[in-house]
Amino acid sequence: MRQNAVTQTISLVMMILSLAACSTSTIIDEYRETNLDLELNGTEQVVIMGRRHAGEYETEPDFIDCIGHRLANGGKVSVMPEQQFLDSFYPWFEPRVAPLKLKRMSMILNDPIISERINSLSIRYLIWVDGSTETTEKSGSVNCALALGGGGCFGFTTWDKSANYEATIWDLKQLDEEGRVKVRTEGSSYVLAVIAPIPFIAQVQADACGGIGDRLKSFFSHTLPGS
Questions:
Q1: If you average pLDDT over residues 97-115, what whole number do you get?
Q2: pLDDT tens digits along 52-71
Q3: The whole model's pTM is what?
Q4: In what order do the strands lie in the sheet with 79-80?
Q5: Taking the domains of the chain in order of start, what are their residue ranges?
Q6: 8 Å CB contact between 167 and 180
Q7: Separation CA 64–CA 26 (nearest Å)
């Protein structure tokens, strides 16, 4: 009976933690220069770039890839991979020299080599993404031991994560800012160890990607002409 009670207690704890860990809270804020959809013809492309000018962090490349896939899903927007863009314009968009303001971007585009390459690749919009995902609080511990005839892990640990990102859309043809999207996602993850560790992971960064990617897609909501 005692073992059954323990098993039932563990099952109840696992169910509660599963429900808590699978939920995240996401707040999205946006600014649009105009209510009209952004123009794109059948050949023009969008590039999404992660900010890496700050020494203490970089906007994760896999997060940038995630947004790109989300934005391109459905075939309405053609997205050039970040690394392809960096290779095509080396070294002008490396961390030390990348244009952080539109004024600096306009100066770079005054170089005929760069402007001709932008035109030849049909790059219309550059979307800068700044931010990162961080662990904000962690507590508890899990200990594992090996012994003759068996062993196991026991304990409980939890941690909170926060994802904060901002995307800024530049129109390279008009040389102006078309809008911004901010996203903040928070969630808690857990590991319950009773013989074997059982993780319950909150998909904080994935939810942030979905939120910011879908909102960016709404800027280009109509099917591309000629597509």
A1: 92
A2: 875 666 899 999 999 999 99
A3: 0.82
A4: 24-32, 176-200, 150-171, 123-147, 45-50, 79-80
A5: 2-220
A6: yes
A7: 18
